[in-house]
Amino acid sequence: MPEGVMKAWLESSHLNGGNIVYIEELYESYLDNSASVSAEWQGIFSQLPKVEGSEVEYRHSAIRDEFRALAKQANKQVVVSSGNDAKQVKVLQLINAFRFRGHQNANLDPLGLWQRDKVRDLQLSHHDLSENDFDKEYNVGSFAIGQDTMKLGDLYKALRNTYCGSIGAEYMHMTATDEKRWLQQRLESVQSKAALSVDEKTKLLQGLIAADGLEKYLGAKFPGAKRFSLEGGDSLVPMLKELITRAGAAGTKEVVMGMAHRGRLNVLVNVMGKNPSKLFDEFAGKHDEILSSGDVKYHQGYSSDFVTPGGTVHLALAFNPSHLEIVNPVVIGSVRARLDRRDCDQGDLVLPITIHGDSAIAGQGVVQETFNMSQARAFKVGGTVRIVVNNQVGFTTSVAEDTRSGEYCTEIAKMVQAPIIHVNGDDPEAVILATQIALDYRNEFKRDVVIDLVCYRRHGHNEADEPSATQPLMYKIVKKHPTPRQLYADKLSAEGSLTTAKIDELTAYYRKLLDEGQCTVDQWRPMTEHSVDWTPYLGHEWDDDYDKEISLEKLKELAVKLSSYPESHPVHSRVKKIYDDRMKMATGEKLLDWGMAENLAYASIVDRGDRVRITGQDSGRGTFFHRHAVLHNQEDGSTYLPLQNIREGQGPFDVHDSVLSEVSVLAFEYGYTTAEPAGLTIWEAQFGDFANCAQVVFDQFISSGEQKWGRLCGLTMLLPHGYEGQGPEHSSARLERFLQLCADHNMQVCVPSTPAQVFNMLRRQVVRPMRRPLVVMSPKSLLRHPLAVSSLEEMSTGVFHNVIGEIDELDAKAVERVVFCSGKVYYELLDQRRKNELNNIAIVRIEQLYPFPEQELQAVLKEYQHVKQFVWCQEEPQNQGAWYCSQHNFRAAIPEGTTLTYAGRKASAAPAVGYMSLHVKEQQALVTQALTID
After folding, report:
1. Coil, strand, or helix at residue 461?
2. What is the pLDDT of residues 435-494, one digit of tens each?
3. What is the C-alpha to C-alpha distance for residues 78 and 506, in angstroms, rounded to an integer?
4. Which parts of the chain are coiled coil (predicted)?
5. Are residues 436 and 489 in the same domain?
6. 363 and 498 share one domain
7. Shared-domain flag, residues 647 and 790
8. Quick check: is 546 in a domain?
9. 407 to 105, 107, 910: CA distances (angstroms)
10. Could you tell me if residue 215 is left (phi over 0), alpha (psi between -120 and 50 degrees) or otherwise beta?
11. Do both 711 and 821 map to the same domain?
């Protein structure tokens, strides 16, 4: 190739000097994971020449680190002969191999059951090294041992201590170089060994004594009772106390924890400071009479204060149903609310801790969903410390063979490149070091981190279960295996840190506390300051009076603000048309449509100084192109939110297009509202049908949290519902399921039919001091229906009408039939009646189906006492919708001696038909049926 052509090719090639840094970064990513680069680059890198006799290419960054280290020794005599040059590279490869795969040969299983093959990459021979090289000095590159060169024998020992001891660290899957080097420094500088004083060791032993002592006490006092013992995973107690203490020293003010059953009672007593006498009373069958239903003791939450070197930390353990992992997004939501209240966007002031089972973290999809939320704008909290109590058996199932497909139960954490620290639960000092590193990583990088506490379960899934029936080999070992307390006490005694007499004294003292029913946690303090004051929201009923009106002048002012945006912010032509119309609505030229009324409700709330938070798929614009709370600049993509610009000092307005999940996002928002009673928190389903993916949250938290746990929640759920011929998965929000959950005045189920109604319904949820969930069957076609409009005057009253009577001027005495209905079908009934001039049929809308407004309905029916025919009309099939769950309420409200019939679709397995022609035929039939007098 001619010289000029060669020069031109080199200057244009991706291999020229200007791109070398970028190419090296690509190459390092390729070495970590070949799939992380494009197929083209995979082809280029795979063709690069290999070092003879080696299967692993060495990273250029490590070579650069080596030469930088050598440069610093310019005035030193460096022992590197020409014969050592090749082996020097092999030594650096050896270091890298331990960082990548050392965890696979770490001593993690207390029972010694794990059968793990030797990893070739960790053998000297694999790198053309041997014990004959042990006395030779080599440069150690970036190995964070505090010296530049080491004898190979010392280096090999240090590598095994660091990566193949009681801690097995997985972090080389991460692409962030600074995070990997931070972890390397923390592990390698101490060779994964904690440096604890005698006092710290004593406190560590006390934690193990407490964990072991409580379980033995309960086992003796209440034999056979379910307690989901922590035995085998005892190190969890000192781990949590270390986490809280260290977090408090770093400035954390609150810690929110979520965990399933295993070890929960132990955490309540030995970490949270719950008085053991109260726990004993619960075992004995005594309970608090305040709650209507209550819950079993291993579902209960708790709150307390905990003294740390940095000040008092408020602790909260979330209530948890048996749907194990669902508590994770609830905890994260609670943390986000606390952070928002503290105006802390980095996560420093509130720490979330979630505790998982090994089978559950690998098996339940909400874990993946919660990991996926961890860095999303609407849901991030500065990282979560995730602890797996890995007892190596799921209920009665062999974990490795049946409950997962990956090597570890923690593989899912790699999706967000979280570091994973596996640690042997029988080495409590290693547990403490793993805990310190995990928390410091979280605080430094604001990302999730996982501690895999590898332990065992001394008893069966519960204390009535016989584990040997399904795990005979494991439980032969377990029965002979000493407890973590015994192992550590023997270690401290052998090394001379504590005498046997002192250990016996500590054990006896803990037993004395239990016998006397005294708090076992020295750091416990009674709560002096709750994170939020719920007092204003307690003891209220539905019909309590409250200041509901809003002046017409204020509404007009807010409407103008809401409809304004900078001229320098060009929006889409369709959006501009919507906002031009909104300005006309604000000035009285047009009546308000649904989108304007809804946004005006939010404006009135933030104008009060309260927060509005909305999450859901497409919530910024609204799935049906109606809300447009977020205006997108068509030239530069920037956004402008009129609701964030209502006035100086207004309440926050946050609207987020959520991750594509229902169950985790709804659980998050439930957690948010249980920690933040003020303001309006909304979860919006893209289609109401999709709420069925979150049914566990409705069943186990929203509908029954107050009855089981005394937890108030003012969450609002907007579930688009209505039959427009869009098929069985885009029609029904399954109204019947929510009505079936209704009892004890636990929540509200509303079907508003006008913009004024939605305005006053949303305001009522904030202005009225009672805090209970609100389920809304929100509309689709009504968003633009010409009859679904309202005036500002209708909104200024502040009244949400649970029942709306006949709006046309009918002669009440001439009415022969009254049709009850809810939602969109009202407008079809109204249109058909007007067309057919059926002036002897009245239509009554029931806008709130629960709590059922019997007195209000009876008041509306006063002028129809002579009517004999009453009918309930619905779009849903007969076995769905409100008919079966509410007909007893309709019958109780109508006059005696009258009949109540049904008009609607016949019972169906599917929520709706899939063919438009059939839908239209059915819809016309049910309207005709409702308007036909027998």
Report:
1. coil
2. 999 999 999 999 999 999 999 999 888 877 888 888 889 989 999 999 999 999 999 999
3. 54
4. none
5. yes
6. yes
7. yes
8. no
9. 13, 15, 41
10. alpha
11. no
